[in-house]
Design a protein that fits this description.
With 134 residues, this protein is α/β, with parallel strands linked by helices. The chain has helices spanning 6-13, 20-31, 40-46, 53-62, 72-87, 97-108, 118-123; strands spanning 2-4, 36-38, 65-67, 112-113, 129-130.
C-alpha cells in the first residue's frame, strides 16, 4: 500500500498544467504494484476541489484510491513531532497536515507519494518517499 499526498491528488483532479503528467504517471506506477489510499487529512485537503462529498468519493474511486483512517498511535506521534517542530522555532500554532500524513505513513510502515518532501524528510526520515526527480 502507498499513502498518496494531497498535492498528487489535486494535480490529477485539477489537471495541473505543470504536475499532472508526473502525478498521473507516478500514481499509475504505484497502482500497478500496490493498493493506494488517502486518509482523513488528505481527504479534507482535496475536498476544496470538489463540488460535494459524493463527487469527491466518485473522483477517488475513478483514480482507484481507497480510504484508510489514521491510527491513534499515528495521531499521538504527529503531536510529538509537532512539539519538536515548535521547539525548533516553527511558527505554526496548530498541527500541520504533513505531520499527520507523515506519522500515519511511519506508524503503518508505508511510503508516501508526494511532491512536497521537506517536512517529511526532516521529521519522518525513515518514511520512504516517492517523489519527482527535481
Amino acid at each position: 500500500m502507498t499513502l498518496i499526498d494531497s498535492n498528487v491528488v489535486i494535480d490529477i483532479l485539477a489537471r495541473d498544467p505543470t504536475w499532472f503528467e508526473w502525478s498521473f504517471e507516478a500514481l499509475n506506477k504505484q497502482a500497478a504494484q500496490r493498493a493506494l489510499f488517502v486518509d482523513e487529512v488528505v481527504y479534507s485537503e482535496i475536498a476544496v476541489h470538489s463540488a460535494n462529498e459524493i463527487a469527491l468519493d466518485q473522483s477517488l474511486r475513478d483514480i482507484d484510491l481507497q480510504f484508510q483512517a489514521i491510527p491513534k498511535s499515528a495521531l499521538f506521534l504527529a503531536g510529538k513531532v509537532f512539539g519538536r517542530y515548535r521547539s525548533a522555532g516553527g511558527t505554526r500554532t496548530s498541527n500541520l497536515p504533513d505531520f499527520f500524513i507523515g506519522a500515519h505513513a511511519q506508524i503503518v510502515g508505508l511510503p508516501i507519494l508526494t511532491r512536497d518532501v521537506r517536512r517529511y524528510r526532516t521529521y519522518f526520515p525513515d518514511v520512504a518517499l516517492i517523489t519527482p526527480d527535481v
